[in-house]
Amino acid sequence: MQLELAADELKSVLNRLRRAQGQIAGVIKMIEEGRDCEEVITQLSAASRALDRAGFSIIATGLEQCLTEEGQTVADKDRMRARLEKLFLSLA
What we know:
The chain is mostly helical and 92 residues long. It has helices at 7-32, 37-68, 74-91.
């Protein structure tokens, strides 16, 4: 299944991923500088949340597309829903 995000959804997902990218770069720098463990973990947690939210958004969009796509059989939709559910659970 090819994912097609609407422009506003794409912008939101990319912003979350860029935020996570910046946070991870910050974490690397903090570790290299020997910063406080609590500060490092706080930044890691923030990056993890940003990645999770981007993933959930992508999966939700995929599920919506799967369930509304015309021309698919019930079996096709069930298989796709199962695949998306597995992806969702991998993020949980």
